[in-house]
Amino acid sequence: MLARFRGYIFGGFCFLLFAGASWAQISAIEGDVKGADGQMVKGAVILIERQDMKGTYKGAKTDKKGHYIYNGLPFPGTYNVSVWIDGEKRDETKGVRTSIGDPVQVSFDLKQSAEQQKSTQAAVASGTATPEQERGMSKEQKEALEKQSKENAAAIAKNKALNDSFNAGKDALTAKNYDAAVDNFQKGVEMDPNQNVIWANLAEAYIGQSAGKTGADKQAGLDKAAEAYTKAIALKPDNAGYHNNYGLTLARLRKFDQAQAELNKAAELDPPNAAHYYYNLGAVYVNDGQSGPAETAFKKAVETNPDYAEAQYQYGNALSARMTFSADGKTAVAPPGMKEALEKYLQLEPMGQFAEAAKGLLQVIGTTFETDYSKKGAPKKK
Is residue 102 part of a domain? Predict the structure, then answer.
């Protein structure tokens, strides 16, 4: 508010003197929210929490185009911005600094976030996460990563030269300089061939190196990666992450029977995450066009964890390959378990990325379904 003013008239001109005028400085945050199904999300709640001092700002919601904007934030300020859907936090961006002028852009892609979370699982198990993966980890994952990383660090701290070589390899791997990573990890295993973590990282470097190659060169790189994983597993056979990554490498080499054995071993060693290993195996078979083995793998995943939504959908989808038709060809007949798997997926993820596909398959087999499973008390994620 402007303070009082006094007017003085000199020679017919009036000069207004303003005392102590001040203006509050404010800023804004805006962005878009894209759901796990790739569609823009309407009605997502945006929560903004100030970090440099106490302050919480609610009320922003996405419109029908998935867009939101929150005006009137104090400036300067540092904020955490999170998106909530159906009362559950789905994603968060931390350390947002606002500015005067145009709103700061903070958008969310929930499909991309989910994929990033999956990619961190094997990284946590082996203690070899990238900075980007670490930013997307939960508190529990970070604790597990820190524990594994400490074990790794203790294992290589015996020798400074070995430690320097390992760290140089890790830096090169993070920078995707795979040739340098291979050179440094190779030096490491030559200095001490009994360090499982160096063999595992060497395998990852070979995989990265092979990604830019074709034909025989690509094959050779994957062969070297597989051999390095066998060395790591021989030294630490109870590491489920090694068996998982080795299995996926074997799948790239189209050695599916061996890949299946390794992923089954990972599930055996790590029962709490067994469903994810079976899911990985199913994905391997889907990518190779083998619907029968994929069906078996996804079935194991849902039997291990019935609340694994994506596994339920993939199991139902794999079963659809065995649909038959009535004698007149007009009625589709679903194999046992298909209807139940698709309905379970919709119960768990009524707005999930596969929701429309699941509904479409149910319509094909003539099944009616509840359009809003959330009203039926769908379990919340933990």
Answer: yes
Task: Give the CA distances from residue 376 to residues 144, 193, 317, 379, in Å, rounded to whole numbers and listed in that order.
Answer: 35, 56, 23, 9
Share of the chain above pLDDT 70, in %: 86
Residue 258: left (phi > 0), alpha (psi -120 to 50), or beta?
alpha
Per-residue pLDDT reduced to its tens digit, 105-155: 999 999 887 777 777 777 787 777 766 667 667 788 888 888 888 887 776
Whole-model pTM over 0.70:
no
Q: Tell me whether residue 62 is in a domain.
A: yes
Locate tokens 């996460």: which residue?
Answer: 129
In a domain, 133, yes or no: no
Contact present, 249 and 203 (Cβ < 8 Å): yes
Which range of residues forms the domain containing residue 91? 28-106
56: CATH? 2.60.40.1120
Placement of tokens 């659809």 in the chain: 320
DSSP string across 201-245: HHHHHHHHHHHT--HHHHHHHHHHHHHHHHHHHHH-TT-HHHHHH
Residue written as token pair 């933990």: 382
- 364-374 as b/e: b if 16+ CB within 10 A: ebeeeeeeebe
In the chain, the number of structural domains is 1
pLDDT digits (tens, 9 = 90+) for 13-71: 343 333 433 455 889 999 999 998 989 999 999 999 999 888 999 889 999 999 999 99
- Going by C-alpha positions, the residue among 295, 310, 300 that lies closest to residue 266 is 300
d(CA 343, CA 251): 31
User: Residue 210: which of 227, 232, 190, 189 has the closest Cα?
Assistant: 227
State the Cα–Cα distance between residues 145 and 129, nearest whole angstrom: 8
- The answer to the question of residue 146 being in a domain is no
